[in-house]
């Protein structure tokens, strides 16, 4: 080892660390503040919807307002989270108007009970913040991509309260098989700073209790593997449903106003027939699933409600509805077999998330942060099996599969 020859590299690494630490402090702070404002806005919108049932019937009004906001901010045709992924993997540009557009549109969606999440919006907001700060600091294209990833992690951590998962998700979601470890320090620092600021300001993340975790042995492990097989299948079906419903809306109704009004009418009709339990993001269903109190068909109905709302133009993202679908599917599986519904709900949630996002490491971290470490062996089984068997489908069509899931070979293809 030649210490003298290694010194330039050590100095470069030190400069990198100091530079990105300072940038991450600013990034995490901005993401924490903006994320907190957004999180409280969504929370108050959800609460207002629960306390005022008539808001469901104002869904067409909120839909029209969402379209008008997109037109006013020149965001009609915005690709959503796909735009953020493409800005990292290619030369796609993010405009600052993306931030207020998705901020306002998501709150309007939740105000009238649309089945939509908030984490997809958080990724877009964080990516926009990262891109803006990258421009202010005159970063080159490579550094700006790192800034976008750290912004995604910072805002995701602030809003969802899972900094470990947020740290990995920002690096892992773009290209399956390749994690952008050059962004490790910025993503980790931004996620933890953003999460810390939001928690100090009173925005706390979700956490759930598994009622009983059986001792790890062959029979319960085999049942969790079976659940993961089902989770992989449902994740593929969910991705196909979301994409095909969106295509159907666009094929049959080329006018954006007609699309969102049709989606509103269909959603209101579904709510009147099946109940309002399937409105909103879906954490109410997750809580019920953890207690084993969900009907067998709940996961199918949540999939349908989500596809109708998001496909028609309502905003917020698919992540929390995905968790709700997974939890209710898992609880139904556990109830049917008489095996630990709350553990099955947790593993079902993680299996679905891994299947639709193709981010196994982030998913395992999320399991630890949402449910604790006691069920970690079962979480690892559920995530690995679902990830391997869910194929090349995903929520985000711009996500790239750099390497095969099942063979050590380069494939470089986009998600279905």
Order of helices and strands: HHHHHHHEHHHHHHHHHEE
Distance linking N and C termini: 48 Å
Secondary-structure-based class equals mainly alpha
Would you tell me the overall average pLDDT?
A: 93
In the CATH hierarchy, what is the superfamily of the largest domain? Answer: Clc chloride channel
Shape: globular
Strand proportion = under 5%
Radius of gyration: 21 Å
Q: Which CATH architecture of the largest domain?
A: Orthogonal Bundle
Describe the protein in words.
The protein is an all-alpha fold and 416 residues long. Helix content is 70%, strand content 3%. The protein is globular, with a radius of gyration of 21 Å. The termini are far apart. It is found in: Membrane. This is Chloride channel protein. InterPro entries: Cl-channel_core, ClC, ClC-type_chloride_channel.
Short description:
With 416 residues, the chain is mainly α.
Q: Main traits of this protein?
A:
416 residues, mainly alpha, Clc chloride channel, 2 domains, 16 helices, globular, Chloride channel protein, ClC-type_chloride_channel, ClC, transmembrane
Spell out the blueprint of helices and strands.
Elements: H1 3-51, H2 59-72, H3 81-89, H4 98-111, H5 119-136, H6 141-160, H7 163-172, E1 175-176, H8 184-200, H9 218-252, H10 256-274, H11 283-290, H12 298-312, H13 319-337, H14 341-357, H15 360-371, H16 376-389, E2 400-403, E3 410-414
Parallel strand pairs: 1-2
Antiparallel strand pairs: 2-3
């Amino acid at each position: 080892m030649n210490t003298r020859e290694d010194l330039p590299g050590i100095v470069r690494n030190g400069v990198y660390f100091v530079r990105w630490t300072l940038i991450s402090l600013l990034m995490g702070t901005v993401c924490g503040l903006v994320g907190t404002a957004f999180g409280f806005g969504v929370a108050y919108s959800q609460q207002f919807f629960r306390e005022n049932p008539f808001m469901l019937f104002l869904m067409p009004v909120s839909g029209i307002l969402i379209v008008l906001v997109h037109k006013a901010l020149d965001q009609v045709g915005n690709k959503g989270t796909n735009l953020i992924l493409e800005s990292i993997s290619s030369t796609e540009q993010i405009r600052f108007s993306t931030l207020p557009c998705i901020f306002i549109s998501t709150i309007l969606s939740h105000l009238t009970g649309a089945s939509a999440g908030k984490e997809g919006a958080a990724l877009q907001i964080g990516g926009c913040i990262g891109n803006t700060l990258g421009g202010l600091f005159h970063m080159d294209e490579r550094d700006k991509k790192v800034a976008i990833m750290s912004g995604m992690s910072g805002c995701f951590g602030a809003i969802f309260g899972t900094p470990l998962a947020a740290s990995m998700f920002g690096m892992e979601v773009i290209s399956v098989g390749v994690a952008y470890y050059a962004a490790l320090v910025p993503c980790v620092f931004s996620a933890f700073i953003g999460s810390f600021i939001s928690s100090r300001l009173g925005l706390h993340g979700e956490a759930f209790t598994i009622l009983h975790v059986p001792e790890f042995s062959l029979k319960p492990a085999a049942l969790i593997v079976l659940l993961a097989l089902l989770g992989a299948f449902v994740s593929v079906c969910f991705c196909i449903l979301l994409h095909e419903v969106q295509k159907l809306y666009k094929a049959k109704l080329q006018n954006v106003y007609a699309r969102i009004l049709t989606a509103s009418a269909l959603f209101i009709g579904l709510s009147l027939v099946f109940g309002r339990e399937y409105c909103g993001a879906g954490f109410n269903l997750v809580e019920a699933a953890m207690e084993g109190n969900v009907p067998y068909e709940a996961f199918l109905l949540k999939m349908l409600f989500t596809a109708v709302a998001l496909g028609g133009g309502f905003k917020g993202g698919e992540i929390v509805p995905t968790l709700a679908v997974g939890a209710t599917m898992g609880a139904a599986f556990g109830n049917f077999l008489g095996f630990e519904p709350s553990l099955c709900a947790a593993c079902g949630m993680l299996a679905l998330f891994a299947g639709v996002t193709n981010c196994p490491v982030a998913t395992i971290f999320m399991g630890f942060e949402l449910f604790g470490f006691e069920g970690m062996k079962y979480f690892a089984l559920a995530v690995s099996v679902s990830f391997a068997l869910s194929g090349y489908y995903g929520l985000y069509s711009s996500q790239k599969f750099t390497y095969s899931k099942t063979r050590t070979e380069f494939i470089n293809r986009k998600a279905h």
